[in-house]
Amino acid sequence: MKEHQGELSLSTIAMPADANANGDIFGGWVMAQMDMAGSIPAKMAVRDRIVTVAVDKMKFLKPVKVGDRVVCYTRVLRTGTTSITIEVDVYAERLTESKEVKVTEGQFTYVSIDERGRPKRIANFI
Ligand SMILES: CC(C)(COP(=O)(O)OP(=O)(O)OC[C@H]1O[C@@H](n2cnc3c(N)ncnc32)[C@H](O)[C@@H]1OP(=O)(O)O)[C@@H](O)C(=O)NCCC(=O)NCCS
Fold first, then answer.
1. CATH number at residue 108
2. Which of 7, 40, 57, 125 has its CA 20 to 30 Å from the CA of residue 34?
3. Which atom of ligand 1 is nearest to the CA of 56?
4. Domain span including residue 47
């Protein structure tokens, strides 16, 4: 049985170009995938322009290896007047094993903005 919570938002492969000098994957690359993954449920809920305002409780639990299948699961944690916070959990499926290992977690907050980039009240959450 899968241990993860939330919806599968993004799935990709970690490539050699995303590796650091140790041969493992850069934390910044993982964060970028998480930001993208979190923006999907945020955008679907807000149905308007959004920007990332904050990243909290980031924890890199285990390294991501080149060739891993990287999967981001997301769930809405909190909705506010103009913002929405998404929990993003990242799992890696190693090339040599068929099980997913939790590698990173974090909370991403997005703000709905108007055409001038100012916070905008969210009209209707789904
Ligand atoms: C996002 C932005 C428009 C917010 O403007 P602001 O004047 O700080 O807005 P406010 O203080 O009114 O806050 C807006 C919402 O964000 C939330 N927020 C602001 N800072 C936050 C933080 N550090 N953590 C969590 N939520 C935060 C507020 O609680 C508020 O939510 P609510 O309306 O649901 O209660 C502005 O900060 C901005 O343009 N930032 C750059 C965004 C960007 O470029 N992101 C990409 C980075 S590469």
1. 3.10.129.10
2. 125
3. 24
4. 7-112
